[in-house]
């Protein structure tokens, strides 16, 4: 019996050793075959990677979309669950708003491009309404054919123009120039208003029946006694070719009268003069741009003063300087004209600080 057990354990041990050798031999053979096939597949895909990249990308995108569709319901449920925590507060606010009996008219502080309607509130006057919308009291009166506050009562609906002036419906045969003359305004100011449109942008032709905004226009019946325009005094300095360092101050670039003052849509001054005098550099600097154009600023020059400031001189008829040239304060750089988007002989003058338009009247001396 003892011999039988010994033989059994000996045979079992031999079996285990044989089985281990068998598994090792066959597993190594399978692994070798797998590595061989994998290497050939990888090599083939690498060689033809351009061929398979498009299907790979499309498959990836489809996978992303499918994952998004599966997750969308879960995200929606989570979001609306969070919002439900505040539903009581929202309901309360809605209830308060619904129970308010007074009607309040909201107005925007952003630049407007058209006339808006305003519902008069208790205590409102023409002056307070005009102040709300940054227009003159006369503008509100003219637009609504009112004489004074006496006829104003709560609930009245007033039309508020977007800017101080007149809203005019163009009649047959009228032009920008005739309308400007009728309402004691500047034709260039009408053209500069960014929301006025023209049948022809080069001739400023108007379409019969269109509404035209006339900035600073005056109702004909309210025209004041004509006063002769005074010419802007400016200091003419003697050009010195050797003086190129900026002085830090700006001189008037031309003689004439201010035909349009700075406003939010025209942060510049227009200096008009029918005699078309020379335009001079407001300060010393380097000419960085000379543009000959029949649109926009027309023929214009930009001078960089090397201290963060640049000046632009637009609508000139002749230009005397070239890009890269240094100019002294008071040196002639061109001749006033009416090129580009212009209705008459004038200079469009801008001062820029770091690329941002500034009010020239705050700098000119």
Walk me through the structure.
The chain has 365 residues and is an alpha+beta fold. The protein folds into 4 domains: 2-81, no CATH class; 116-160, Roll (Membrane-bound Lytic Murein Transglycosylase D, Chain A); 165-222, Membrane-bound Lytic Murein Transglycosylase D, Chain A (Roll); 257-362, Distorted Sandwich (Glucose Permease (Domain IIA)), CATH 2.70.70.10. Helix content is 33%, strand content 19%. Strands 5, 6, 8, 9, 10, 12, 14 and 15 form an 8-stranded antiparallel sheet that branches. Helix 4 (126-132) packs across helix 5. The radius of gyration is 40 Å and the shape is elongated. The model is unreliable at 80-109 and 225-243 (pLDDT under 50).
Kindly estimate the percentage of residues that lie in beta strands according to DSSP: 15-25%
- Percentage of residues in helical conformation: 25-40%
Number of domains: 4
Distance between the termini: 129 Å
Provide a quick synopsis of the model:
The chain has about 375 residues and is an alpha+beta fold.
Write the layout of secondary structure elements.
Layout: H1 2-47, H2 49-84, H3 87-98, E1 116-119, H4 126-132, H5 137-143, E2 157-160, E3 165-169, H6 176-182, H7 187-192, E4 211-215, E5 257-260, E6 269-272, E7 278-280, E8 285-291, E9 299-304, E10 309-316, E11 318-319, E12 326-327, E13 332-335, E14 346-353, E15 356-358
Antiparallel strand pairs: 1-2, 3-4, 5-6, 6-14, 7-13, 8-9, 8-12, 9-10, 10-14, 11-13, 14-15
């Amino acid at each position: 019996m003892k011999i039988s057990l010994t033989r059994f354990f000996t045979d079992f041990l031999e079996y285990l050793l044989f089985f281990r050798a068998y598994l090792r031999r066959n597993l190594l053979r399978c692994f070798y075959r797998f590595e061989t096939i994998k290497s050939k597949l990888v090599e083939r895909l690498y060689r033809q990677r351009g061929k398979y990249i498009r299907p790979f990308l499309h498959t990836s995108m489809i996978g992303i979309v499918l994952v998004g569709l599966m997750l969308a319901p879960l995200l929606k449920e989570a979001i609306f669950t969070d919002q439900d925590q505040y539903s009581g507060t929202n309901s309360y606010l809605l209830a308060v708003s619904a129970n308010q009996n007074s009607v309040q008219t909201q107005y925007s502080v952003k630049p407007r491009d058209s006339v808006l309607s305003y519902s008069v509130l208790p205590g409102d006057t023409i002056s307070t309404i005009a102040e709300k919308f940054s227009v003159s009291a006369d503008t509100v009166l003219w637009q609504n054919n009112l004489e004074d506050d006496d006829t104003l009562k709560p609930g009245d609906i007033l039309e508020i123009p977007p800017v101080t002036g007149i809203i005019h419906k163009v009649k047959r045969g009228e032009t920008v120039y005739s309308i400007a003359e009728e309402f004691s305004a500047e034709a260039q100011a009408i053209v500069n208003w960014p929301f006025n449109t023209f049948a022809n942008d080069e001739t400023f032709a108007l379409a019969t029946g269109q509404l035209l905004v006339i900035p600073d226009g005056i109702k004909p019946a309210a025209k004041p006694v004509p006063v002769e325009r005074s010419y802007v005094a400016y200091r003419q300095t003697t050009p010195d070719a050797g003086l190129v360092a900026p002085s830090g101050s700006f001189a008037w670039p031309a003689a004439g009268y201010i035909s349009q003052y700075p406003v939010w849509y025209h942060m510049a001054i227009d200096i008009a003069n029918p005699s078309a005098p020379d335009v001079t550099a407001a300060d010393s600097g380097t000419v960085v741009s000379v543009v000959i154009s029949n649109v926009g600023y027309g023929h214009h020059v930009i001078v960089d003063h090397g201290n963060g400031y640049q000046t632009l001189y637009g609508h000139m008829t002749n230009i005397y300087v070239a890009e890269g040239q240094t100019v002294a304060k008071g040196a002639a750089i061109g001749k006033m004209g009416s090129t580009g988007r212009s209705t008459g002989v004038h200079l469009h003058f801008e001062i820029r600080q770091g690329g941002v338009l500034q009010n020239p009247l705050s700098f000119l001396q």
